[in-house]
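Demo today. Your pick:
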Amino acid sequence: MNKLIIDGLFDYNTALVKGFPSVFDLYENENTSMPGFKKEILKKLPAPELFYVTRSENSLQFMETVREQSDGVPVYLFIPMYDSKNRTQKFDRLQKTIFDKMPISWIEVSTGMICDLMESRKLREKILEKLKNEFGFIEESLQKVQHESGVILAQGKDFVIKTLSTSEEAVEIAETYYEAFYGEELPKDASQLYAQYVLKSEVYEWVIVKKDGRVVACGQLIKGREISSLFSITTRPDYQGQGFASLVVTLLLEIALLNNYKYCVLHATMDGRPIYEKIGFEHRFDIQVIGTRKDFNSVVNKVENWFGIYDIDYKHHHPVQYYGKMIGSALLGVGLTGLLGYSLVKYFK
């Protein structure tokens, strides 16, 4: 089961390269996967982010590729921590290994989750009934998704749920993601990139919600080699709380069932974990997500890393080291201030 969750991340990288064949190459071996900009792409675009995935914290390969690709675009390293008891100690060593090679700009703990699609379907029955009774969803419409773009799956008074069909919608998906996660508008050069996105592929499906003439919520199903997986479940901030995400996820899982997948996997934030548990996903293990950018201020990075700021568990699991460093730094600051004051007094005498 654990292997399948990491397989889902490998499949995501494959889908990204399939979506932008003229932009990305795939660097991959048995243990590691990472997309990278083609060499002829001289300017690295600000989106999408690149995912570096490894099956084990002992298999850190392509580090030079990570360093090269992180010049202008964030690269997120997904590193599974199967042993929760020793996770922090192992991550301390891992963080040092990575930090020796490149600056770390961001760290988060993600959760690897898996869902038995058939067994968990009862948990989604209410949402399915709502889709059928209130929004006109019929299961036969899913058959069209296999071969057609722009299939309307459900429709409310002021919104429609459909599959991706136009380049404009692809750009609006990116705008939705950028607005939800960064609180900013999508950069123009990134808009040009998403306008080139391959709309229909054998390895992914997009379900989108359109309201007020634009995409306001979306989600992607990756149809992998052994497993299906969910990515980019996103709603614009002004449209959150209306239940769009649960409708999108339910429809994507129905598409996965139609494609004869037994399981679906995802990686979720700790805040998102309870939401996915309600519809049948089970937590399996933690994943350390480490963000790096080459242009990050290395001096500031080293100072903050020394205090353990980037490891969210450092203060909790290493209180002696943490407070020892804080007290030592404070004493050093007092000592340097005193020395400076003494030198100034002596100088003016």
